Structure formats: C-alpha cells, structure tokens
Amino acid sequence: MVKSILLVGVGGQGTILASKLLTTGLMEAGYDVKMSEIHGMSQRGGSVSSQVRYGEKVESPVIELGGADILVSFEKMEALRWLEYLKTDGKVILNNYEIGSISILSGKVDYPEGIVEEISSKVDTIVVDAAKHAKDMGNSKVMNIILLGATVKSMKLEGIDWEKIIRENVKKQFIDINIEAFKHGMSLVG
Predict the structure, then answer these.
(1) Are the beta carbons of 64 and 33 closer than 8 angstroms?
(2) What pLDDT, on a 0 to 100 scale, did the predictor assign at position 45?
(3) Is 71 exposed, middle or buried (0-12, 13-18, 19+ CB in 10 A)?
(4) Is the overall model pTM greater than 0.70, yes or no?
(5) CB–CB of 151/68 below 8 Å?
(6) Ranges for the Pyruvate/ketoisovalerate oxidoreductase catalytic domain (predicted)?
(7) Alpha-carbon Rg for the chain in angstroms
(8) What is the crossing angle of helices 143-154 and 130-137, to 10°?
(9) Distance between CA atoms of 165 and 28, rounded to whole angstroms?
(10) Rounded to an integer, what distance in angstroms lies between the CA atom of residue 69 and that of residue 51?
(11) Alpha helix ranges (H) inside the chain
(12) CA distance 134 to 129
C-alpha cells in the first residue's frame, strides 16, 4: 500500500530539507520512495510544496487531488490552499504560524482569520506551535525539524534511525539541536 505525504510551506521555512530527510529515512528503511518538489518563487517567500510517496512499489511521485494521507503545513494559509489534496480520512499537521504574502504585507488584504478552526472542523488536525517550540529551544530555524518529528510520529515511522539520518544530512554544528528538535516534535503527537 502506497502512502502519500504532502509538505507545504513558504520559501525559507526548510520544507525541502524536511522532505529530503523524510525521503532518505524511508529509503533506508527499504521503501520504494518517490519525491517531487515545487519551489515557486521560494527564495522570495513564495509557496513551496513537496510530495513524498512511499510503499512497496510507487509508480508516480505525484499526489492527485484527494490523494494525500497526511498534509504537513509549515504555514497556516498554505494548509488551506492545499487542503483539497487530502484524503477524506487524512490528517493535517498544521504549524500555527503566519507568513503574510506580498498583498497582506502591503496592506491590500488582511490575513484570513479562523484558519485553524476551519481546518480542524473539516479534518483530523494536529496543531503544532513549532515556531514557539523552536524559539524556546534557542533556534527558530529548527521549526521544520520539529514538524518532521511530529510527522514521523503521526505516520508511525519511529522505527527508522532518524538520528543517523539527521547526523548524515545536516551541518555538523547543527546536528545536536536538530536531533533535539526532532525528538521534541515526536513528543508533541499523542
């Protein structure tokens, strides 16, 4: 059976790194894995999405509408934008974090209210305040790894040696904080 994970965010949030770590771990666990990513103006704060599909045999890296088992959103509005890709019985891991688009930052429109409530009323949702947790850990850049930990726990993938994956794929000076962030993210999911 093939499982599909859709990770979405805004450029600069580390969405692609989290996807690559996830893909590496799944491959090392023996799964057939396909990953595709879209960087849409990611350097300028644009939308970023990554699709990870794994199982015994994966034919395509693309997740169709209504095909994602889990939607991991690094930013609230992105969750709303991509929600139609989630299966009806899928799960959302929602980072309770706002990054205003250009039109919001310029004052032309307001950031939408009630996103968390709207999504939570429609689908099974785990809300994570990864920005607060990362700040409490002393490094706001580990928000993505906190969300990765929450994703791994939600997907019941704890049996993979994630510490090894992190050690081999992040810069040496950031290994310990990333391992700590990963474990913290796992602890946020019941």
Answers:
(1) no
(2) 65
(3) buried
(4) yes
(5) no
(6) 11-186
(7) 16
(8) 120
(9) 9
(10) 11
(11) 15-28, 76-82, 102-105, 115-122, 130-137, 143-154, 162-169, 175-187
(12) 9
Q: Locate the domains of the chain by residue range.
A: 3-107+114-187
Q: What is the pLDDT along the chain (190 residues), one digit of tens a residue?
A: 999 999 999 888 889 999 999 999 999 999 999 999 876 654 556 788 999 999 999 999 999 999 999 999 999 999 999 999 999 999 999 999 998 777 777 888 888 899 999 999 999 999 999 999 999 999 999 999 999 999 999 999 999 999 999 999 999 999 999 999 999 999 999 8
For the sheet with 86-95, list strands across it. 32-38, 47-55, 3-10, 68-73, 86-95, 124-128
- The candidate with the shortest Cα–Cα distance to 174, out of 17, 12, 15, is 17
> 3-107+114-187 in CATH: which number?
3.40.920.10
Buried b (16+ CB within 10 A) or exposed e, 41-62: ebeebebbbbbbbbeeebeeee
CA dist., res. 17 & res. 169, Å (int):
9
**How do beta strands 68-73 and 86-95 pair?**
parallel
Residue 62 amino acid letter: V
